Each structure stands twice: as structure tokens, then as C-alpha cells.
């Protein structure tokens, strides 16, 4: 008879994979947010300050309204933001909650290029996260 034994660690590996997946999504979203914030055209700073990385199960953020001073005109202007959607466990996202963000994006793209840059970093992020979770 053989004295070899086999121990199955499938559940532990599955748990590490789930945590790694969550971390990869979070790092991609944070990187895209940082890139978008650096690219967005700034007048009052409201769009930049409301460019957000959203993570699974962190609830939603209510929309709001606030006054900001325009750097172009010097006037106080009202700025509105939209509520953020709740996300499921397998989703992270980047959004600009400023309700006029689509008009900035059309004229001076900042979200789409940030998303493309994030995709370029996927392999490096996945490798780093995999190492941290002992999956490589």
C-alpha cells in the first residue's frame, strides 16, 4: 500500500480567487478613476471631485446639489450630481456623478480614455494581485 496522501484545498483556493477577483476589479476602477480625474476639464472642480470608483456592495451615494465658484467667470454656480447605483458582487465601475458629465465627455473625453488606460494595465494588476493572494 502507498503512504501517499492527498489533501483537497479547493474551497480555500476558491475563496482566495474570489478575493483576488474583487481586488483586481477594485484596482482597475481606482486606476481608471485617478486617470479620469487627471484628464477632466476643470472649471469649478465639481466633475473632477465627483468622478468616483464604485465597488461591490458599498451601497449607493445620494445625489446632491452644491455651490461652486467658477474659475472662468468668478460667479457662484449650482452643480448637481446623480445618485450612484448599487453594484453586485462581481462589478466595479467608474462614473462621473456630475449630471453634465456627458457633455464634457463628448467634447473633451476623459472617462473613455481612462477606461482604455485601465485595460492596458490589466495584466500587471492581475499578476500583482495574484501574487498577493498566493495564486501564481
Outline:
This protein is an alpha+beta fold and 136 residues long. It has helices at residues 10-39, 46-49, 101-107, 111-120, 122-132, and strands at 51-54, 64-69, 76-81, 93-96.
> What is the count of distinct domains?
1
Kindly name the structural category: alpha+beta
The level of helicity is 40-55%
Tally of helical segments: 5
Largest sheet: 2 strands, antiparallel
| N→C terminal distance | 34 Å
Which oligomeric state applies? Answer: single chain
Strand arrangement, major sheet: 1-4
Shape category: elongated
Element-by-element helix/strand order = HHEEEEHHH
Strand content: 5-15%
Radius of gyration: 20 Å
Low-pLDDT parts are: none
Structure description:
By secondary structure, the chain is an alpha+beta fold. The chain has one domain (16-132). Helices cover 46% and strands 15% of the residues. The protein contains five helices and four strands. It has helices at residues 10-39, 46-49, 101-107, 111-120, 122-132; strands at residues 51-54, 64-69, 76-81, 93-96. The strands form two sheets. Strands 1-4 form a two-stranded antiparallel ribbon. α1 (10-39) crosses α5 (122-132). The radius of gyration is 20 Å and the shape is elongated.
Provide keyphrases for this structure.
136 residues; two-stranded antiparallel sheet; two-stranded antiparallel ribbon; single chain; alpha+beta
Topology of helices and strands:
Layout: H1 10-39, H2 46-49, E1 51-54, E2 64-69, E3 76-81, E4 93-96, H3 101-107, H4 111-120, H5 122-132
Antiparallel strand pairs: 1-4, 2-3
Helix pairs in contact: 1-4, 1-5
Amino acid at each position: 500500500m502507498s503512504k501517499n496522501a492527498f489533501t483537497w484545498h479547493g474551497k480555500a483556493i476558491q475563496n482566495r480567487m474570489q478575493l483576488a477577483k474583487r481586488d483586481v476589479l477594485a484596482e482597475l476602477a481606482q486606476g481608471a478613476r485617478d486617470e479620469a480625474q487627471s484628464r477632466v476639464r476643470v472649471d469649478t472642480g465639481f466633475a473632477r471631485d465627483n468622478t468616483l470608483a464604485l465597488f461591490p456592495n458599498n451601497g449607493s451615494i445620494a445625489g446632491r446639489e452644491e455651490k461652486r465658484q467658477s474659475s472662468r467667470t468668478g460667479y457662484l454656480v449650482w452643480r448637481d450630481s446623480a445618485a450612484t447605483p448599487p453594484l453586485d458582487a462581481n462589478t466595479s465601475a467608474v462614473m462621473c456623478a456630475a449630471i453634465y458629465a456627458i457633455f464634457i465627455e463628448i467634447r473633451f473625453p476623459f472617462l473613455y480614455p481612462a477606461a482604455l488606460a485601465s485595460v492596458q494595465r490589466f495584466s500587471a494588476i492581475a499578476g500583482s494581485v495574484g501574487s498577493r493572494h498566493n495564486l501564481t
